[in-house]
Protein backbone atom coordinates (compact mmCIF):
# COMPACT_ATOMS: atom_id res chain seq x y z
CA UNK A 1 0.00 0.00 0.00
CA UNK A 2 0.87 3.57 -0.67
CA UNK A 3 -0.51 5.44 2.35
CA UNK A 4 1.35 5.30 5.67
CA UNK A 5 -0.77 3.79 8.41
CA UNK A 6 -1.18 5.48 11.82
CA UNK A 7 0.64 3.87 14.71
CA UNK A 8 -1.61 1.36 16.41
CA UNK A 9 0.04 -0.26 19.41
CA UNK A 10 -0.11 -3.98 19.97
CA UNK A 11 -0.92 -4.39 23.64
CA UNK A 12 -0.61 -7.22 26.05
CA UNK A 13 -4.16 -8.47 25.51
CA UNK A 14 -5.71 -10.43 22.64
CA UNK A 15 -7.80 -7.50 21.42
CA UNK A 16 -4.68 -5.36 21.12
CA UNK A 17 -5.55 -3.29 24.18
CA UNK A 18 -3.57 -2.79 27.32
CA UNK A 19 -0.50 -0.97 28.43
CA UNK A 20 2.16 -0.59 25.79
CA UNK A 21 5.84 0.06 26.35
CA UNK A 22 6.98 3.53 25.44
CA UNK A 23 7.47 3.96 21.74
CA UNK A 24 9.49 6.62 19.93
CA UNK A 25 6.59 7.16 17.55
CA UNK A 26 4.52 8.78 20.29
CA UNK A 27 1.72 7.77 22.61
CA UNK A 28 -0.69 5.02 21.60
CA UNK A 29 -4.01 6.02 20.09
CA UNK A 30 -6.01 5.02 23.15
CA UNK A 31 -5.54 3.64 26.62
CA UNK A 32 -8.77 2.96 28.42
CA UNK A 33 -9.33 2.74 32.14
CA UNK A 34 -9.92 -0.98 31.70
CA UNK A 35 -6.42 -1.21 30.21
CA UNK A 36 -5.00 0.60 33.25
CA UNK A 37 -6.76 -1.67 35.68
CA UNK A 38 -5.65 -4.67 33.66
CA UNK A 39 -6.93 -8.17 33.68
CA UNK A 40 -6.07 -8.82 37.34
CA UNK A 41 -9.68 -8.76 38.55
CA UNK A 42 -12.50 -10.10 36.42
CA UNK A 43 -16.13 -10.79 37.12
CA UNK A 44 -17.65 -8.76 39.94
CA UNK A 45 -14.99 -6.05 39.86
CA UNK A 46 -15.28 -5.65 36.12
CA UNK A 47 -19.04 -5.11 36.49
CA UNK A 48 -18.70 -2.76 39.47
CA UNK A 49 -16.07 -0.64 37.79
CA UNK A 50 -17.82 -0.58 34.43
CA UNK A 51 -21.18 0.64 35.74
CA UNK A 52 -22.39 3.82 34.13
CA UNK A 53 -22.20 6.83 36.37
CA UNK A 54 -25.86 7.85 36.15
CA UNK A 55 -25.78 9.15 39.70
CA UNK A 56 -22.65 11.28 39.21
CA UNK A 57 -24.76 14.31 38.33
CA UNK A 58 -26.96 13.85 41.38
CA UNK A 59 -26.12 14.91 44.89
CA UNK A 60 -26.42 12.97 48.11
CA UNK A 61 -26.22 9.19 47.99
CA UNK A 62 -25.55 9.16 44.25
CA UNK A 63 -22.45 11.28 44.72
CA UNK A 64 -21.33 9.01 47.56
CA UNK A 65 -21.72 5.95 45.35
CA UNK A 66 -19.71 7.60 42.59
CA UNK A 67 -16.98 8.38 45.13
CA UNK A 68 -16.99 4.75 46.30
CA UNK A 69 -16.66 3.49 42.72
CA UNK A 70 -13.79 5.89 42.15
CA UNK A 71 -12.06 4.66 45.32
CA UNK A 72 -12.61 1.04 44.23
CA UNK A 73 -10.89 1.75 40.91
CA UNK A 74 -8.00 3.41 42.75
CA UNK A 75 -7.66 0.50 45.21
CA UNK A 76 -7.74 -1.95 42.31
CA UNK A 77 -4.86 -0.13 40.59
CA UNK A 78 -2.89 0.06 43.86
CA UNK A 79 -3.45 -3.65 44.48
CA UNK A 80 -2.26 -4.54 40.98
CA UNK A 81 0.85 -2.40 41.54
CA UNK A 82 1.51 -4.05 44.92
CA UNK A 83 1.26 -7.49 43.30
CA UNK A 84 3.63 -6.43 40.51
CA UNK A 85 6.08 -5.24 43.18
CA UNK A 86 5.53 -8.50 45.10
CA UNK A 87 4.32 -6.59 48.16
CA UNK A 88 1.74 -9.22 49.01
CA UNK A 89 1.08 -7.90 52.52
CA UNK A 90 -0.02 -4.55 51.07
CA UNK A 91 -2.00 -6.33 48.34
CA UNK A 92 -3.83 -8.35 51.01
CA UNK A 93 -4.68 -5.18 52.97
CA UNK A 94 -5.94 -3.51 49.79
CA UNK A 95 -7.98 -6.59 48.92
CA UNK A 96 -9.64 -6.46 52.35
CA UNK A 97 -10.43 -2.74 51.91
CA UNK A 98 -11.75 -3.55 48.44
CA UNK A 99 -14.14 -6.18 49.84
CA UNK A 100 -15.38 -3.83 52.59
CA UNK A 101 -15.95 -0.98 50.16
CA UNK A 102 -17.69 -3.25 47.63
CA UNK A 103 -20.09 -4.45 50.35
CA UNK A 104 -20.77 -0.86 51.43
CA UNK A 105 -21.38 0.14 47.80
CA UNK A 106 -23.78 -2.78 47.27
CA UNK A 107 -25.76 -1.75 50.37
CA UNK A 108 -25.93 1.87 49.19
CA UNK A 109 -27.08 0.76 45.73
CA UNK A 110 -29.84 -1.43 47.18
CA UNK A 111 -31.02 1.41 49.43
CA UNK A 112 -31.05 3.79 46.46
CA UNK A 113 -33.04 1.27 44.41
CA UNK A 114 -35.58 0.85 47.22
CA UNK A 115 -35.92 4.61 47.58
CA UNK A 116 -36.33 5.06 43.82
CA UNK A 117 -38.93 2.27 43.64
CA UNK A 118 -40.91 3.88 46.46
CA UNK A 119 -40.70 7.31 44.81
CA UNK A 120 -41.80 5.80 41.49
CA UNK A 121 -44.85 4.19 43.10
CA UNK A 122 -45.79 7.52 44.71
CA UNK A 123 -45.35 9.35 41.40
CA UNK A 124 -47.60 6.86 39.59
CA UNK A 125 -50.32 7.38 42.19
CA UNK A 126 -49.96 11.17 41.95
CA UNK A 127 -50.19 11.04 38.14
CA UNK A 128 -53.39 8.95 38.31
CA UNK A 129 -54.88 11.45 40.75
CA UNK A 130 -53.91 14.43 38.57
CA UNK A 131 -55.35 12.75 35.46
CA UNK A 132 -58.68 12.41 37.27
CA UNK A 133 -58.48 16.08 38.27
CA UNK A 134 -57.78 17.11 34.64
CA UNK A 135 -60.86 15.18 33.47
CA UNK A 136 -62.99 16.71 36.21
CA UNK A 137 -61.80 20.27 35.48
CA UNK A 138 -62.36 19.89 31.73
CA UNK A 139 -65.85 18.40 32.28
CA UNK A 140 -66.70 21.42 34.45
CA UNK A 141 -65.43 23.76 31.74
CA UNK A 142 -62.54 25.11 33.84
CA UNK A 143 -59.97 24.83 31.05
CA UNK A 144 -57.39 27.10 32.70
CA UNK A 145 -57.35 24.83 35.73
CA UNK A 146 -57.21 21.74 33.48
CA UNK A 147 -54.14 23.14 31.68
CA UNK A 148 -52.43 23.96 34.98
CA UNK A 149 -53.07 20.46 36.36
CA UNK A 150 -51.95 18.85 33.10
CA UNK A 151 -48.63 20.73 33.30
CA UNK A 152 -48.07 19.41 36.83
CA UNK A 153 -48.94 15.91 35.62
CA UNK A 154 -46.48 16.21 32.73
CA UNK A 155 -43.68 17.24 35.11
CA UNK A 156 -44.37 14.20 37.28
CA UNK A 157 -44.43 11.94 34.21
CA UNK A 158 -41.02 13.30 33.17
CA UNK A 159 -39.67 12.54 36.64
CA UNK A 160 -41.16 9.03 36.39
CA UNK A 161 -39.42 8.42 33.06
CA UNK A 162 -36.12 9.57 34.55
CA UNK A 163 -36.48 7.22 37.53
CA UNK A 164 -37.48 4.32 35.26
CA UNK A 165 -34.42 4.96 33.08
CA UNK A 166 -32.13 5.04 36.12
CA UNK A 167 -33.51 1.73 37.34
CA UNK A 168 -32.98 0.02 33.99
Structural overview:
- By secondary structure, the chain is an all-alpha fold.
- The protein has 2 domains: 1-31, no CATH class; 33-167.
- Helices cover 67% and strands 0% of the residues.
- It contains 5 helices and no strands.
- α3 (61-84) runs antiparallel to α4 and α4 packs antiparallel against α5.
Q: What's the total helix number?
A: 5
Rg, rounded, reads 25 Å
> Could you estimate the helical fraction of the residues in percent?
55-70%
Q: SSE order, as H and E?
A: HHHHH
**Total E-strand runs:** 0
In the predicted model, the low-confidence regions spanning at least 5 consecutive residues are 28-45, 52-58
How many angstroms separate the termini? Answer: 47 Å
Give the total of domains: 2
Instruction: Indicate the mean pLDDT.
Output: 77
Q: What gross morphology would you assign?
A: elongated
In terms of DSSP E residues, the strand content is under 5%
Judged by helices, strands and strand pairing, the structural class is mainly alpha
Biggest sheet record: none
Region (Disordered): 1-33
Protein name: UVR domain-containing protein
Coiled coil: 65-166
Keywords: Coiled coil
How are the secondary structure elements laid out?
Layout: H1 33-37, H2 44-50, H3 61-84, H4 88-139, H5 143-167
Helix pairs in contact: 3-4, 4-5
Please supply descriptive tags for the structure shown above.
168 residues; mainly alpha; 2 domains; 5 helices; 0% strand; elongated
